Automatic annotation (TrEMBL):
PROSITE patterns: NAD_G3PDH
Gene Ontology cellular component annotations, sorted alphabetically: cytosol
Binding site for substrate: K113, R263, N264
Entry protein name: Glycerol-3-phosphate dehydrogenase
Single GO MF annotation: NAD binding
Amino acid sequence: MDESVQKIGIVGSGSWATAMIKMFEDNARGKDILWWVRKEEDLAYIKSYGHNPNYLSAVKVSVKPDNLFLDAKSVIQQSDIVVLNTPSAYLKQALKDVKSDDFANKIVVSAIKGIIPHDNLIVGDYLTKTYQIPLQNIVVIGGPCHAEEVSSEKLSYLTLAGKDDNTVERVATFIRGRYINTVLSDDIFGVEYGAVLKNIYALAAGVCHGLGLGDNFIAVLISNAIQEMETCLSAIDPETDRDINASAYLGDLLVTAYSQFSRNRTFGHMIGKGYTVQSAQLEMNMVAEGYYASACIQNIVQRYQLDMPICHMVYEILYHRQPANAEVKKLVAKLT
């Protein structure tokens, strides 16, 4: 194990962050785990009881009390590897006091499957632009995986993507273990954009399920979605030779579109059942990244003049308040 790495910091305190705490505790033994927790009352609870009170509360975590922080800056400054694991919409707030120098010489891992709203940037691009982090120091974690299954030690595969093979392997060393296999990739842009897109498609699947459409139709929807994803990734990054059927793309899409644990599918199902966007957001305790991603991806669609009817349908339903049933009917004629 890499002896130059002594401290691994996690910025985020939701389900996926909690599952990753357990994963690092199991697979990076002997390393200090530092954890930024957003709410003071949650931090106090974790210190007292060793459980996250709001997310995956049955999972035992063993982070030392002195390694729990309410400010991300302290975690980042003290860590050799920094894992960013907040919803994309909250990343800027979490890093509000952090400066470029705080990230100097760190390996920065993005476990965020979303786009930064308003900036319309994937996390990797946002980090290089805002904090001048070299792309060679950034690693992106892709699926397919759900926090609930990782935390219950069900065999899972994580794709780690980056431009520097040595950096990617160093991170993988602390992740792979008895119930985690790792797949290494150089397609940092494709893996990150693919993770953004699959949330939109899972939301579309949820809408259709909520409207009463069955498995036969949703299978056609998802087979069209992977083709749409390939079109988009090829336009954004045409130089990379990727297999769209690999687990980081098709696998992550399938698990997000079909799993009971998928918050994006759940959110879409509520919309299909007639919930407003606001009421669905209030009822869910977790962020559905596909909502924010839908608006951001429209900029890419327009920039590259892409034909992406599934993404367009979701955008019309969420942001233009178009009736879900009417938009799905329009989509039906475009599917093959």
